[in-house]
Amino acid sequence: MNVGWLEDRELLFWALVIEDPESGDTIEIQREITVDGERVTPVPGSLCLVRGGAATFYEGLQDWAVEGTRLTLTLSEDAAEALGLPTDVEIDLDADGAALAKTHLPQLTS
Description:
This protein has 110 residues and is of the alpha+beta class. The chain is 20% helix and 50% strand.
């Protein structure tokens, strides 16, 4: 899996993007931000899950965990249905991807 981090100060969002290079499928965990000079602040209640660049669901991430290089996302039933995913999504990452997830998921989910 390819994992990347975006901070877009013009479009005002953060995103952890996970892409399956074989299928091209993506899962993005996004959060709206505000920018005041150099200060960047997450907007409460703005967590958004995006699958494949099109299917979206707000506030559907109930929990997450990174154990070793496995990322587990626990979605609400409504989010799972809207995104066409199971409620427990397990994703095997490489070491760099797991480190990015561990670093940025707390920012996105706080």
